[in-house]
Each structure stands twice: as C-alpha cells, then as structure tokens.
Write a structure and sequence with these properties.
The structure holds two protein chains of two kinds. The radius of gyration of chain A is 24 Å and the shape is globular. Chain A folds into two domains: about 70 residues, no CATH class; about 220 residues, MetI-like fold, CATH 1.10.3720.10. By secondary structure, chain A is an all-alpha fold. By secondary structure, chain B is an alpha+beta fold. In chain B, about 30% of the residues lie in helices and about 25% in strands. Chain B contains 17 helices and 23 strands. In chain B, the strands form seven sheets. In chain B, strands 13, 14, 15, 16, 17, 18 and 19 form a seven-stranded mixed beta sheet that branches. A four-stranded mixed beta sheet of chain B has the order 1-12-11-10, covered by helices on one side. In chain B, a hairpin with a 2-residue loop joins strand 2 and strand 3. The chains are: A mainly alpha, B alpha+beta.
C-alpha cells in the first residue's frame, strides 16, 4: 500500500510538469497582450516597453517558462501582472473560501444524493420513486444561473431569510453569518451532483437488491435494514467513489461560476479575472492549483477504494 | 449504534469545520465596531472587482479610481467643464506656457496627521518620472522625449518647468493625486510595496478595512481640510454578476450600482432606487481603414454614412436612443471647444448610390470587423450589413475577440478588414485626442494621413491664445466631419441607481468613471 501511494505521488510530478507546459503554451498562444490592459493612449512606446520588460514579457517564451519553473520550484508563483501582488498570497487568501464551498457541496451532495437514492430504490415504481425521479431530471437539467436567480428572488428578496451577496455581512464576524451566506451558493453548486448521485444510487441499489447474496441473507433471517446498510450499501458505494472523482472537475468549474454569481470571494472569481486580463502568472498559478486539487482528489478516491473494498487492496 | 452516532457527529463536525475554516483562516485586516448605521449612514457601492491597487500613481481601472476618489484628494479637478481647486489653491501659467506654479492650501494634513506639503507633491512627481517605478502617468509629463522639471519653491509652492510650451499641461495635472512621502520614501518598488494596502490618503474618507474579494471599507476622515463628509462610511462591495447585483439593490444589500442599459427597465420597475443618467464622456465611432484604397476615397466614405440612419444605428447598439446621444463631433460633449454645428450625413439612399457611382465603386464589397463579445457592436454590425445591402454594398462581417481585434487595429499596415467600430474616452482636453488622429499616431486606427490636419493639432497644443486654440480645434472637427475621417456614432451615457433613502446627489455631482465627484456630499435621509 505504501509503495503504491509513493508510486502514485511520484507520478504527480511528470503529470504536473506536463500540465504546466501545455497550459503555458496554450495561454501564450491566445492572442492579446496583458500590458494593453493598462496602456492609455497617452503612453509613449518607450514607457510601454519598459513596463513590458519589468514584467519579464520581453524575454523569449522558453526563457519565460524556465524562469517561471525555477521560481515555482522555490515556492514562488510570481507576481500578478494586474494586482501587483504575489500570486501565492492571492491564492492563499482565496482558497479557503473555495475549499469551504466545494467541501460543503460534496458533503451535501453525498448525504442528500445517497439518502434520496436509497429511498427511491426501496420504493421502486411507487409514487415517491416517481416524484424523486422527476425531481432528479429537473436537478440535472437545471441551469445554474437561473436556479441561483430563483433562489435569490425567493429567499433574499421575498422572504428576507438569506443574504444574496458575498461571504459575510459587513462588520459582522461570525461563523453563523458565513453559513447563512453559504447556503445558496452551496445549494446551486450541489444541485446537479445531488441529482446524479441520487440516480446512480437508485439504479445500483435496485440491481444489488436482485443479487443472490441478498436472498441468501433473507434466508438466514437478516432484517432488511441490516442487509441494506451492512451489505448492499458497501457494494453500492464503491462506484460512487468513481463518480465522486469524476465529478470533481465539474465541482471545481462549477465553483468558478457560482462564485461569480454570488460574489463569493474564492479562487474562481480570481481565475476568471485573470483569464480576461491575461494575467499569465495568475492563470498559471490557478491552473496548477486546480490541477493539483483534481489529481489529488482522484488519488484520494483511488485510495478510498481500498478502504471500502478490501478485495481491491489485495489486488495491488 | 455507536459507530452510526460517530459517523453523524463526524459529518456535522466536517460541515462546521469546513465553513469555520473558510471563515477563520480569512485575513482579517481590522476589527469592526459591529453596526455602522450612525448619523450620516453607511453607503454600500457595488464595484465589479477588487481594486487593482490603492496607490494612485498606478491606478487605471475604474474600481481603483473610484475608491481612490474617496481616499485621496487631487490637486485640482475638472468635471463638466468646471475647474475646481482641491489641495491646490492656485495654478499660474507663465505667458509662454513653459512654466506653471502651483500653490497648495495652508494646513493640509494626511489621514495619519502628518502635514501635506510641497515635499509630498515633489516626491509624487519624482516617483512618476522615475523610469524604474513604471508609473502609468509618466508619459503625460514627458514632452517631446524630455521629462518636465519639478522644483519646490517653498513649503507650499511647486514649480513645473516644461521643455516646451503646452496648453494641455493642466489636463495632465488633473490626473495626479499626491502620495505621502513619509510613507513611501525609500521603497525600492512602489508598485509592489506592501504599504499600498494600508493607504494613507488626504481625501474626505480614510481607509479602514479591505477584505480581498469582499469589500473595501472607508470612513469619514476628520482631518479633511474641506467640509467633512456627511456619510459615516462607504463600503465598496464587490458584486460581480449584474443580475444578482440588481437583486441585491432591491434587497438593500447594495445602495449604489452602475446599471447596464439592458437592466434599466428592471431597476426602474422595482422602484427601490433613483436612477440617474449622465454623459459617460465616451464616444462610439465607426472607423474606415484607409490602408485600403477604396476607403481612401472620400465619396465612398460619404456614401456609406449616407446609407445609415444614425438614430436606428443607435437604437440597434444601445437598445434605446435614451441611453446614447447621436454624435456629430469626434470630441465628446464635455471637451473644451467642442463644436455643435458640423456637416452631417442624413439617411439618403439615392445620394448614397449616386456617390458610389461617381466614385466608380458600385457593387462594393466591405469586410467589417467587430468585437464579437460586445452585444452593442454585434447588433450595430448586423444593422449596418442590412442597410448597406440596400445601396448595393455587400458586407462580410468578421467577428473577432477583443485581443485579436486590438492587435490588428494597432498594426499600422493593417489590411485585414476595411471597417470597424471604435470608441474612446479622452477627458475634457482636446489635445488628448491627437494620439488618435495624428497621421503617425499609434492609435490612429483609420490611418488617415493629412499634413494640414497634423499641423493644426500641433499648433493647438502650444497655442497660448484661447481664441486661436478654439479656432484651430474648430477647423479640426470641421475637416474631420467633412472628410468623414471617422464617423462619430454616439455619445454614451452612464446610468447609476442609488437607493431612494440617500440624498445629496445633486451636490455630489455625477462624474464619469468614478460615479461622483464628491462622495462626501451624499447622506442617508432620516
């Protein structure tokens, strides 16, 4: 197991290196010039060139990449071209908000998705199953922005229950205040995954319940609850880990959009701005950070297989 | 059972810790006093994004400029053609316009109580002129390749010695707000200095707190030399998405917001806010690329504009003529010496066809480039394609992304398209426009070349007699309209929605880019 973990961790290095090369090339292939975002028509060409040089953009591309890589290896992600602050500081400032949102969304999706999926499976073809299935179709096809607007309209404008903007009330420093601000963004970010998880759990529970081992358990006199939670659920949860790993990119990109809608001060809004203003070091920083989260998340998912299913552990 | 309970507890703990983690590890800059509703109230203004900097010598984005307008006082300012002395009490120009003397008011102080003197102004200008500091304003103080000289005459007096006469020097000075020498002296790189994030200003509001991605809080500065602010504080709150910002305005989470034309009706119908509209200072134009032979023919250009109905074109681009005024001059309406009476080209299909025939350009084909992400440009381009078809001109539309379009436009030998849209906001000084219209100017997107035209621009820049200047700028606008060097389409308007509970809007005076000239005059009604 340790060997396997070490091997996987070592694989991270070439993978991240490859991602960095591809992203660096892609970003620089895009037309545009970050210097243009603060050039005014009054600026002389000399002054513009001086600014370009101060950002290191006058160097050949391969050298720029080499400098970037050298800095990254010493823990320096460079300076944001637009915000004039170290990229790492900006990311570190924002990442807790994004991780908080993503974490809550994952937990919420799992709890609600699994519960509803089990309820639907146990009531197969009964009215409650049909209602839940219908709702899950809506959940999968709901456009995030529209759903967010409806939530804001109902819970902020009409009911005045929840704030619609940012992560906290100005001048208030409490966890409860942050939770209130987080409810709607978390819900919008989770709605699709809840529906996906629910549908998956439903169908896989139904097929597991038809397996021989379930009948045998019944024959031995086990109760439905014991069969469901001790035997069926284990088998059902195994593929959920795969879906969880696969849904990570969706949650990361989803967070980018949700953060914009609710002005949630996370990494997503930072990333979107960086892309629009061609803030190269910032884009690279965020791409690398997101890639790392993604790869690490998948690694974690792979590790969890072993925990949930001992058969897999013994195969490695 | 125990295991189940443990699982439940773990989940609850995880949820709480995730939120708490998000909360507690966030950098808290200062503590809060809890509530903010005092005598004059707190005004929450929506900004699209984090300010890029709090240091005014690097501020170029609307967020930084708006916040700095509350934190810092300028030397002098011009709005709607009216000059107002702020930190300066006078500015005297020598007859030859080569020397300007600026006198500061007595008893000025920074927000930390230190005196604001000629040393600070001198330090500011030296920092701007220092090539190593990369200030975006340096070029405004380098004339004909030579930097101006700034000297301190006494504690309150500064002299600016120019390498050549400049009638536009005042307009360059208007952009500058002094930064404190006692804070920044000795900093190797002002642009990246940590001190930029705890700004010490001289304006009606002092810095209180900045939470990245969330808000900037400023509160009344009792050290301000002029009338103290009626508001207790202003929060510049980051609200990225238009639709949710409009809803937050209804909800009272925001009190002031820039409104896009498409949201105007929605905000008006909600009825929570007063809406005000004022000229944005911007001019939207249509550009003929005269690197293309056909476009060099005046008759062709005139034929094209005769085939367009300007009102309809504005309707297409700005969703209503309410949000933009038809433009006649290449200068915005608040520019000095702007001319109202100029040759116009009313919609006339027959005349257009006749002009095309006279120029031998029947069956003309035009490649029209526009910024594809801009709905106004897309709509105007589609209108134009349909209208020009009526006079027998075939238009091929070339949608481009902003960066690609910008790159092509800046290429002096650009022949990739025949026409495009343009736009600019240059301020009140007509000399600023010459970077768009001189034959060899980098931003002369139409590549129109005319020696006489160039001469007038250069003469007007150094002309000491105001009447003669007015005459020269009159000739420039006249010639541009007659020759259709550029086709001015519209003067855009800015729309601001402000919570109906706030007053003092007239006194605060609306201003392009920074919303209000003087935030200190706004207050919350009892």
């Amino acid at each position: 197991m340790k060997k396997y973990l070490l091997r996987r961790l070592l694989q991270l290095i070439p993978m991240l290196l490859f991602i960095s090369i591809v992203s660096f090339a892609l970003i620089r292939l895009a037309p545009g010039d970050p210097v243009m975002s603060f050039v005014t028509p009054n600026m002389s060409p000399d002054d513009i060139e001086r600014i370009r040089a101060s950002m290191g953009l006058d160097q050949p591309l391969y050298l720029q990449y080499a400098y970037w890589l050298q800095n990254v290896l010493t823990g320096n992600l460079g300076y944001s071209l637009i915000n004039h602050r170290p990229v790492l500081d900006l990311i570190v400032e924002r990442i807790p908000a994004t991780l908080g949102l993503m974490g809550c969304s994952l937990v919420l999706s799992l709890i609600i998705g699994i519960t509803l999926g089990l309820v639907a499976a146990l009531n197969k073809n009964k009215p409650i199953d049909r209602v839940l299935s219908f709702l899950s179709y809506i959940g999968i096809s709901l456009p995030g922005l529209w759903f967010a607007m409806i939530l804001i309209y109902v819970f902020s404008i009409q009911l005045h229950w929840l704030p619609s903007l940012g992560m906290r009330t100005i001048g208030v420093n409490s966890v409860w205040d942050v939770i209130l601000h987080g409810v709607m963004p978390c819900l919008v970010l989770s709605i699709t995954s809840i529906a996906v998880f629910m549908r998956y759990i439903r169908s896989s529970t139904i097929s597991q319940l038809e397996e021989d081992y379930v009948n045998i358990q019944y024959a031995y006199g086990s109760t439905s609850t014991v069969i469901l939670f001790r035997h069926v659920l284990r088998n059902v949860l195994l593929p959920v880990i795969t879906i969880l790993g696969l849904s990570l990119p969706e949650i990361i990109t989803g967070a980018f959009i949700v953060e914009s809608i609710f002005s949630w001060p996370g990494m997503g809004s930072l990333g979107i701005n960086a892309v629009f203003s061609l803030d190269y070091p910032m884009i690279m920083g965020i791409t690398m950070m997101s890639s790392f989260l993604l790869i690490f998340g998948n690694l974690l998912a792979d590790m969890m297989y072993g925990v949930v299913d001992p058969r897999i552990k013994s195969m490695r | 059972m125990l295991r189940k309970r443990g699982l439940r507890a773990a989940i609850v703990l995880l949820l709480v810790s995730l939120f708490a983690g998000a909360c507690s590890s966030y950098p808290v800059v200062t503590t809060d006093k809890g509530g903010l509703s005092g005598e004059g109230g707190n005004l929450i203004i929506a900004i699209k994004d984090d300010p890029k900097t709090f240091n005014p010598i690097y501020a170029g984005d609307s967020m930084s400029l708006t916040i700095n307008n509350a934190l810092y006082a300028p030397l002098l300012s011009v709005n709607n053609g009216e000059k107002k002395f702020v930190l300066a009490e006078s500015l005297t120009a020598a007859k030859d316009l080569k020397k300007f003397t600026l006198k500061l008011r007595a008893g000025l102080v920074w927000h930390d109580g230190q005196p604001l003197t000629a040393d600070d102004v001198l330090f500011t200008f030296n920092s701007i002129l220092d090539e190593k500091q990369h200030s975006y304003f340096r070029s405004s103080f380098v004339l004909d390749g030579k930097p101006i000289k700034v000297n301190k005459a006494d504690e309150r007096t500064i002299e600016f010695v120019l390498p050549q006469a400049s009638a536009a020097f005042e307009s360059a000075l208007v952009q500058i707000v002094p930064i404190p020498k006692h804070i920044f002296e000795g900093e190797a790189d002002l642009e990246k200095s940590d001190k930029n994030y705890s700004p010490v200003g001289s304006g009606p509001f002092k810095f209180k707190e900045y939470r990245a991605g969330e808000y900037v809080l400023v509160e009344r500065a009792d050290t301000y030399f002029s009338e103290k602010s009626k508001l207790d504080s202003i929060t510049f709150r980051i609200a990225k998405e238009n639709n949710s910002a409009v809803l937050a305005l209804q909800n009272g989470e925001l009190n002031m917001l820039r409104v896009e034309p498409q949201d105007y009706a929605k905000v008006k119908a909600a009825g929570h806010a007063k809406l005000m509209m004022f000229p944005s200072g911007g001019v939207t134009t249509m550009v003929f690329n005269m690197n293309i032979d056909r476009m060099k023919q005046k008759e062709v250009r005139q034929a094209i504009v005769h085939a367009l109905d300007k009102q309809e074109l504005i309707q297409a681009g700005f969703s209503s003529t309410e949000f933009a005024e038809p433009a006649a001059s290449i200068f915005s309406p608040d520019t000095l010496y702007v001319k109202k009476e100029l040759p116009t080209y009313p919609y006339d299909k027959d005349k257009s066809k006749a002009l095309l025939k006279a120029a031998g350009a029947e069956g003309l084909k035009i490649r029209f480039a526009y910024f594809s992400a801009s709905t106004p440009e897309t709509n105007m381009a589609l209108y134009l394609q349909q209208k020009l078809k009526e006079v027998g001109i075939q238009v091929e539309l070339i949608p481009l992304d902003g960066a690609a379009l910008g790159k092509k436009a800046l290429n002096k030998d650009n022949t990739d398209y025949d026409m495009s849209f343009g736009g600019y906001s240059m301020g009140f000084e007509p000399d600023a426009y010459k970077v768009l219209y001189l034959s060899d100017a980098a931003y002369n997107y139409s590549h129109y070349k005319n020696e006489q035209f160039d001469q007038w621009w250069q003469q007007a820049a150094v002309e000491t007699d105001a009447n003669k200047r007015a005459q020269l700028y009159g000739q420039i606008q006249e010639l541009s309209a007659r020759e259709v060097t550029t086709y001015p389409i519209a003067y855009g308007k800015s729309i601001i929605a402000i919570d109906a509970r706030f007053a003092g809007i007239e006194e605060a005076v609306a201003k392009p880019v920074v919303m209000f000239d003087d935030f200190a005059k706004l207050y919350k009604q009892k």
